[in-house]
Amino acid sequence: MLCPGVLKFSLTLSDSRLSETPPHPAATASTLREAPVEVRSLFMERRTFLAAGSGALAATPGLAAQPHAKISAIITTYFRNSHADVFVGNMLRGFYWDGKPHESQLDISAMYIAQTPAKTDIGKAEAAKHNIPLKPTVDEALVPGIQGVVLIGEHGDYPLNEKGQKLYPRYELMEQIVNHYRKTKRAFPLFHDKHFSTEWKKAKQMFDWSRELKFPLIAGTSITLTWRRPALELPLEAPIKRAVGYWYGDKEAYGYHGLETYQCMVERRAGGETGVNWVQCLEGAEVWRWSEANPWARNLLEEAMRHDDSLKRGRLEDNVNNPILFLIGYRSGFLGVVYLLNGQTQQAGFAAELEGRSDPLTCCFLTQWGRPWSHGNGLSYWVEQTIVKNREFYPPERTLLATGLTEAVMDSSFCKGAKVETPHLDVRYRAQKESLFMRGPLPPYDRIRV
Question: Which domains are present in the chain?
């Protein structure tokens, strides 16, 4: 690649074709609310999960069974605690939603698993247990009668590029799905786990396929839909002056989560999303120097951590050996600030200053670091609803922009912190009315957490 920046082709995206989202029973977009998070103490074993859920439905007079949809699952690899285990597992076993067991409305008709190493694979056993045929190709896995496709291209034995990014075949797998859509002249809703690609050109093509063939697309991270403490719902057109987010982990695989989580908050600012002009990645001592020169950012960072119960005691500088900072120059003039703080936290946080308010608005994004990894339940639910109802509930442009930001971050890091110009990130969209994140109590851990 070229340093300090690579100029890519510029493309403007139209607004997502979003149907009006029904209000969440606990949400209002016109107010900023803080709600305590109840911790569920009663344990429910897996074997009683679906029985409890279906029993509750049966006990409710006049309540019809929920509609189901048949799907195909396209997976790179499937081992215990992998993304496939979490999301496909939720489809097979059910999951907690709004504080009670929820029977999945998705029935898997066929699976394709690209890699099934003998020592770690559980996909074959899960498929056999649930009478799901395993197919040798993507095309054959898209069996007649399906109403949706799930693509989980995370984990597996794949090469790295010069920037250290694992080259998952997400583009290639989706291309095979799209080729099947073209061949059969039928296009179904599609879930794409995480960001689209390591390359903007491929990511943009993946998004464009959904617009060309007019199929609903849901993609991205589960962290945008997990519980928030407090339950912060920024209104649309929020007068945000400054905002800081944080997360942890490596620059790409985890950094992407931090970028999209931050984006799900600041996309609600006045004027909506209009794209990004430049991105910069600072590392090590440069992060602390920048923070010292911009004390407002350090102040908001500390405010954002107020609700994080995973924090390590002690000074931030002592706990975090290699801090990372993403700076985002939005076209609107807004400056995005996202820290990665390994050694300090295992959650995400956000804080913003708003015009007309003396105190910042803050929240933490809760994660359940052990089985059943319930911070993924919100995404599981909205994947289900997207497929069953055949419509989008929030804009996939957010994931497209976060994909482009991730590529630019990696370019900047590769070029030792150079500012990377991003004229191609001319991504314009409006957020949906409701944020759709999970409410209610957190479910318990499994008996065996790992």
Answer: 32-225+372-393 (3.40.50.720), 228-367+402-426 (3.30.360)
